[in-house]
């Protein structure tokens, strides 16, 4: 009997077992994907939006620096000394600095257009009250209101620029914003100083206050804070959750780039700011024996130098971010060395060429301070950019406040009671106070610079 090979044997037919598992549910639909947000377009529409926004900032700088050419007039009008006179600018700067984080939060939540409109109203109200003040206390309160309105302008313009211009162009636009603000300073030193002596206190400051009506109408009627089709809020989608205020501030502060930006702003801005806001004219007139016209010319040179450095720094920073720290450290070193030469000059009366030189060096202070905002912008997401910018923008004005107060106190301490003017020697020793915030800020920059570099290396290694 033959047997079939095992390989050819037929397998037994076994029925397939029934599956006891439940049928798989249908796949859930994929969540809708938010449409991609187009990059900022730039172009004419962007420059138009920026121009309207920056008109408010120019107006704010005119208001802010108006006391710089009216300091001696204010001392006579309110019968006050150097300490009390410095209180005007100190309070204005203190309010400005204290409002930076709240303003940043307002810009992040309600958009720059509304914040700019509120800022114009406060600027005009504060300046109008200052125009009619005849005693110290009401005038002081009016400068506080003005400082609050001033605080709402610069961050709002930067947010408009961030929505309208490509990221690579933002450093240049930020420098142009500062340059345009110096145009407002130029109006103060040239037009306002002349009007104050021709027309008097009340008519001059009233006219400045009424400029706000035209600027308010311009913003209300024509400003578009974002390109057509782009979401106005920083976070796309109407239901996007917003972080709490404390969490947003904490997240912005925890970023080392934000803190580095704050100390860059602090250290570079205050020397030129304190000189231009208050002590420049008294120093040049009373300590150096210059006429008001000559002193006004040097303050105008400070503004022009500021504008020139702003344009140069903007072009350099738009090409490479590596220039940030070299610019900052060079400006700090030049400012410290320049003032050392001026203050050490025998007799306290440096020659004209040296005064011109320190004015030109201080012209670099404002543009260098904007590098701090570049650090914050590069290391924070757009939804908290206003908050981070507000933190950074506090720095220079805190430094200015410390400097204004220190110089005023030292001038009074070094001047005999009843003396109507301050000597060159008193100014020389009082201005040595500049080196206290300059040294503290430089140390913090060097410390945080290493921390930012370490975080960048860690991020590159993780990638």
Q: What top-tier CATH class fits best?
A: Mainly Alpha
Structural class: mainly alpha
Per the principal axes of the C-alpha atoms, what is the gross shape?
Answer: globular
Helix amount: over 70%
- At CATH level 3, the topology is Growth Hormone, Chain: A
What is the CA–CA distance across the termini? 75 Å
**Unreliable residue stretches:** 1-22, 30-36, 233-239
- The CATH H-level superfamily is MFS general substrate transporter like domains
**Computed Rg:** 29 Å
- Please provide the count of β strands: 0
Q: How would you sum up the major sheet?
A: none
Order of helices and strands: HHHHHHHHHHHHHHHHHH
Oligomeric state of the chains in view: single chain
What is the second-level CATH architecture? Up-down Bundle
Q: What's the mean pLDDT score?
A: 84
Tell me the count of domains: 1
Taken as a percent bin, the fraction of beta residues is under 5%
- The number of helices is 18
Give the helix/strand layout.
Blueprint: H1 43-65, H2 71-78, H3 82-110, H4 112-132, H5 136-150, H6 154-164, H7 170-199, H8 201-222, H9 245-254, H10 256-287, H11 292-319, H12 324-344, H13 352-362, H14 365-369, H15 371-378, H16 385-413, H17 424-431, H18 435-462
Helix pairs in contact: 1-4, 1-5, 1-6, 1-7, 1-8, 3-4, 3-5, 3-16, 4-5, 4-6, 4-8, 6-7, 6-16, 7-8, 7-11, 9-16, 10-11, 10-12, 10-15, 10-16, 10-18, 11-13, 12-13, 15-16, 16-17
């Amino acid at each position: 009997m033959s047997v079939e090979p095992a390989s050819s044997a037929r397998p037994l037919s076994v029925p397939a077992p029934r599956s006891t598992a439940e049928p798989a549910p249908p796949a859930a639909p994929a969540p809708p994907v938010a449409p991609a947000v187009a990059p900022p377009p730039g172009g004419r529409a962007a420059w138009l939006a920026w121009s309207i926004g920056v008109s408010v900032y120019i107006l704010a700088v005119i208001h802010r620096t108006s006391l710089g050419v009216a300091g001696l007039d204010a001392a006579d009008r309110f019968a006050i000394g150097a300490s009390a006179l410095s209180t005007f600018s100190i309070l204005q700067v203190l309010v400005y600095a204290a409002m930076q984080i709240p303003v940043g939060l307002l810009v992040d939540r309600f958009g720059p257009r509304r914040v700019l409109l509120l800022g114009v109203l406060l600027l005009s109200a504060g300046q109008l009250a200052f125009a009619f003040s005849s005693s110290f206390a009401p005038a002081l309160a009016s400068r506080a209101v003005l400082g609050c309105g001033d605080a709402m302008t610069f961050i709002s313009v930067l947010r408009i620029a961030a929505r309208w211009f490509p990221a690579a162009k933002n450093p240049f636009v930020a420098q142009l914003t500062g340059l345009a603000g110096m145009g407002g300073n130029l109006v103060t030193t040239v037009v306002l100083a002349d009007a104050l002596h021709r027309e008097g206190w009340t008519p001059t400051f009233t006219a400045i206050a009424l400029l706000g009506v035209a600027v308010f109408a311009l913003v209300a009627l024509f400003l578009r804070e974002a390109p057509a089709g782009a979401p106005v809020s920083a976070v796309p989608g109407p239901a996007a959750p917003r972080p709490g205020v404390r969490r947003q501030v904490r997240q912005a502060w925890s970023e080392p780039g934000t803190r580095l930006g704050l100390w860059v702003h602090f250290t570079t801005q205050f020397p030129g700011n304190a000189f231009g806001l208050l002590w420049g004219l008294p120093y040049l007139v009373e300590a150096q024996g210059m006429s008001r016209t000559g002193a006004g010319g040097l303050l105008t040179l400070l503004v022009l130098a500021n504008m020139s450095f702003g344009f140069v720094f903007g072009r350099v920073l738009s090409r490479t971010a590596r220039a940030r720290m070299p610019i900052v450290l060079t400006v700090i070193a030049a400012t410290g060395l320049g003032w050392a030469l001026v203050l050490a000059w025998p007799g306290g009366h440096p020659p004209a060429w040296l005064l011109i030189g320190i004015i030109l060096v201080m012209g670099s202070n404002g543009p260098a301070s904007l590098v701090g905002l570049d650090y914050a912008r590069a290391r924070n997401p757009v939804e908290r950019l206003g908050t981070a910018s507000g933190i950074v923008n506090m720095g220079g004005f805190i430094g200015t406040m410390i400097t204004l107060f220190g110089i005023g106190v030292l001038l009074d301490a070094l001047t005999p009671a009843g003396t109507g003017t301050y000597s060159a020697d008193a100014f020389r020793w009082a201005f040595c106070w500049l080196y206290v915030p300059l040294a503290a800020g430089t140390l913090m920059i060097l410390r945080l610079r290493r921390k930012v570099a370490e975080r960048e290396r860690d991020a590159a290694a993780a990638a």
